[in-house]
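RETRY 2/3 - previous attempt timed out on the joint model. Re-submitting the same 1092-residue input unchanged.
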Amino acid sequence: MWSGLFFGLGSDGTISANKMSLKIIGERTSLYTQGYFEYDSKKSGSMTVSHLRICDKPIRSTYRIVEADFIAVHDEKFFHTRDVLSAAKEGAILLVNTVREKEKFFSALPPSVQDTIFKIKLKVFLINAYAVAASMGLGRRINTIMQVCFFKLTPFLTIDEALEALKSHIEQTWGRRGREIVMRNVAGLELALAALEQLDYSQISREQTSGKLATTGENDFVSKVTIPLLRGMGDSLPVSTFPPDGSWPTGTAKLEKRQLATQIPVWQSELCVQCNFCVMICPHAAIRSKIVAPSEIKDPPENFSSLPVQFSEELASYHFVLAVAPEDCTGCGLCIEVCPARDRKMPKRKALVPQDFHTTLGPAKAEWEYFLSLPSVPVREIPPDRRTLVLREPLFEFPGACAGCGETPYIRLLTQLFGDHLVIANATGCSSIYGANLPTTPYTKNNEGQGPAWANSLFEDNAEFGFGISLALAQKEREAFEKLRLLKDKIPPSLWHKVHEKGVGDLWAWQRRKAIQELALYLRDIGEESDFLNSLLPKSVWIIGGDGWAYDIGYGGLDHVLASRQKINILVLDTEVYSNTGGQASKATPLGAAAKFASSGKRTRKKDLGLLAMSYGHVYVAQIALQANSKHAVECFLEAASYPGPSLLLAHCPCIAHGYDLRLSPQQQKRAIASGMWPLYRYNPLLVEKGETPLILDSGKPTLDVAQYMENESRFTMVQLRDPEEYEKLIEMARLAVKQRYAYYEQLSHIHLPKES
Amino acid sequence: MPDLSTTWLGFPLKNPLVIGASPVGKSIRSCLEAEEKGAAAIVLHSLFEEQLVHEQMGAHYYIDTLTDMDAETRSVFPQSAIFPLDGAAYLRHIEKLKQKLTIPLIASLNGTTPGGWLSYAKSMASAGCDALELNLYEVATDEQKSSQYLEDQQLEIVSSVISAVSIPVNVKLSPFYTSLPYFVRRLYECGVQGVSVFNRYYQSDINPLTLEVDRHLHLSSSAELPLRLHALAILSSKMGLFYACTGGIHSGYDMAKAILAGAHVTQVVSAVLAKGFSVIEKFLQELKEYMLQMGYESIHEMRGVMNLSSVADPHSYERLNYAQMLAAWKLPLSP
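RETRY 2/3 succeeded.
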């Protein structure tokens, strides 16, 4: 029995290539084959493990491979994160995709890996598959390149037979989509064979070794549970190590250091205009800015820069600093895209410049660590707007979401607004996956140990789940106030007043928390019980989920919650498709878009969830688009949070399922707004009492033809390619839908409703 | 009544107004409307080989890299094979249009590789188009490639297409040849049936405030016509090809001018895009009125009467009265 283990990056094509290899061997030889494939739940940079068995007798092994003749490591960083050689047999073949030169490869391996290679005499073969793929214009898709190397290094087929089989499979798989893909993949096969080389490590002196396995100085739980799980050793942990109530520590995504980017942004401070657009848009909170006192900047790393604050006279004596978390950045390029500052003598140079990851890592890491150590000027007293808000510490960082994700910036922003007293009920979907990619979570806490509390119940009951949390907290608060009322005579009026002050936002939360602490001490001093005061600590409850939840599966519950007059906030991350399960159409999918279950283009209009909510009359509703208009998004977040009843924020989220380069999402989102496909508006029932119209159309009349919005996304152009005539009809229908919707909203925006009083 | 009929690329046409390569060709409905309003032939929008490559690689990137991401997301888009790429949609479009149109349909192609030109040209011919327009759109940016080299390459492509298809081949030219008559003579010798003068280009403009390059295709105006008239007057006097004037036709009088200079047909695009299909009837009416006024009984009769060999003063085409014009120009003087 021959056994092979393949460690691949999700989306590099390793699994489909391995499935194809098994088919080829099964069909062209008399051998039996077996494959088992492991995935993880990260949306970017996930790891896959393929277990392949090949034998001349039927295979009845129903367990994972524990002794391998062949180990393929399709990305060398796995040497640092997983024990990829634990199953290697003596003398096994190790095939590695590496960007390093042959001479430098070995010394860059962790010492434990070097030891294993020496000890069990592995035969090591190297290939720079990324370089081969890039030279053929295939990006980072290295599957056929690694696959032909596998055939070259194994005895199942001669290389000529293998090449012939691979070519015919490539033709079969992609032939219908055009000759270019076939041609490039076929050419890649020959190039791969030429680039494959064996590494002779017998002469390498062991003193040269320099690599280190990442270690952490974290607490017990993290080292006993989190780290083994991250290293892929979860199956070896006893059940008793897991928390019985299902609660997990926060602030753990930062331990992962996934190193996904090939290029990272480097700050050119002399060009920076301190607009903070880059910080606002970053899906992974991997680029941050801070305001610091110049006196705090002591012994900075080489090239560390800071600038006097330009955007506020009050802060002019402080300095603005910006830094990138190099190992947590996914390299999506959004920050560079939105940067408005260009070098007037070299316009391609902006205030953020992409640079090679490996050469920049050292200095960038030093700058990042130094940045984290710098104490920020207290920013909670600065009035929040789109620029100053992102100076606050995000309590959501480095999620496993896709590079360029359009959802995560909204959640990060939410934690910058209310993070230290935030309670989130999260529907199942992308946001629950990257929200709790066990064993880590991107939700984290500040220096005082405060941060969001987060839980995911199910898909269909999230609104009820969050509503229940909110009701329970309100009830406990009422009971606590009731207890407090009995003590009124014993409490100084000023303290009484402070504890009862109503408000919203983190400044209020901070003041309330201080007041509670003060009151607790006071009560203790006078010999009264004070534990019940915990129920008076500030909380901001948010119900979060995607469009699949809000428009479809959880709609009944959502509607029920909106129908209440309870103070509750709802954030819908609308990607207009079931993103997490692979792009099925939802009722939020726009007319004309292709999605699973609507492959010839959706023929019905997007459900107008906002309008349905407005019909109650007591619900605050806003439609926002952070990538294109962060100022508006911030204003709506603040209004929603301070609104006394239910609020519904509908957030436009660019997604990989839209089929375009998400680096361009700010421009594309602007088109969505300008075409009327995603109008920005606010419906604020409080305005009725002021004698104003409750609906404000913030984005005005559409100025762009919907066709010009649609032509930039593959979900629409797929329909066009399939049937241009039908597509034309759909465009007409979409145009009409936009016109009718605008006409309707336009009229509503002029209606003065009778006041309650 | 004057006879508006003409012949182009061997096809008898009811009049000399042809819809040029443009977004009009993309929609079956607008092609049918153009025919109904009186257009005599339609040139489809160009199929760009680079666009097809871009499309295929785009699909490869956006569809195939999003497979096997995780156990829940095995893929993000509907089964990809049902979306035809590599020009299949264009070919099907030709087939559908041919079933519905009675006027000649000319497909337009811009290749980037010799293999690409050839195979797409063959597929277009077998899809049923009546003729091919080869769009020799090329922006020279490489200082190592001589004009001779580039022209030889273009001629090689054109002759390989001609030998591979049996339908007429028309070539759409740019104005940027050192000797346009020489290049057209070589095309003529290759077996080309006609040429269209001239292609219009995306003009790269600069936004001085954002320091970005703006690319827009502005609609043409009648001001662009004289360059075409001049070329037609010279070419039509030298070689017996079919000539199409494209760019700058904004009235029946503009059509008349082009025909007088030697054009068999005039291709109209910007006017239709700006004002709709009603301009077709209007232009034809204006052309008729002009012919009545001048006493021309047919297009055939008036065609080329102002070309280099017929015009009273050929000198005016050859040096364009350049020195005289310059001398007559008065500079605005400061007070």
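The CA atoms of residues 5 and 147 of chain B lie 39 Å apart. Closing ticket.
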